[in-house]
Amino acid sequence: xxxxxxxxxxxLLDYASGSLGESWSLAxxxxxxxxxxxxxxxxxxxxxxxxxxxxxxxxxxxxxxxWEKIRTLLQPNMKTVVSELPAKQSINAVLPEPLRSxxxxxxxxxxxxxxxxxxxxxxxxxxxxxxxxxxxxxxxGKPVPEHSHGGRELTVxxxxxxxxxxxVFRRGDFEEADEDLxxxxxxxxGEDCICLAVxxxxxxFKSWLVRLLQPVLGI
Length: 219
Fold this sequence. Notes:
Blueprint: H1 9-17, H2 22-34, H3 36-56, H4 64-74, H5 99-103, E1 113-116, E2 119-124, E3 132-138, E4 147-149, E5 153-159, E6 161-164, E7 167-170, E8 174-177, E9 186-187, E10 193-199, E11 203-205, H6 208-217
Antiparallel strand pairs: 1-2, 2-3, 3-10, 4-11, 5-8, 5-10, 6-7, 6-9
């Protein structure tokens, strides 16, 4: 089934330019690995950016060395942009590359940590310190406790599905949330929902019991 929910132009442009941190870039690159349409959009952005650099050219006041410095600054920073997607992905793997390498393997070999009845997470370390990256596994048909956000949250579906209001998110789908969104996603029936989630602030749960356990759970 084709991907229906795509990364926004603004976020994809930040990714293409290299201004997006490693944690956020991992979410975008995971979506790109599963979404041919978004990969085409990224290629178009990169081609447009390259053409603009060629058209601008150095000014009379800028030396050749100065222009090369400007070009380097405008081109993607490979330390923060996870843009080198492998030519071949493992057909049976749930986690695409580069996410699978970050996690240390596919979902069947990970040491999941329990969050609640049937729910698990697996933290993924990154070096930028901008956000918390984790895999979530929510049991089929079960809801995530209702919550809002203290900042940005990016979610990519890797297996199963979840419903958020009237929208259904399946493998490869990408959801962006911020402080304005309060929701209660529900995992689809028939299969556990496995997602990649990246957040830069703790979630704001409506339930006092979940808030009480939040420091222990690390969410």
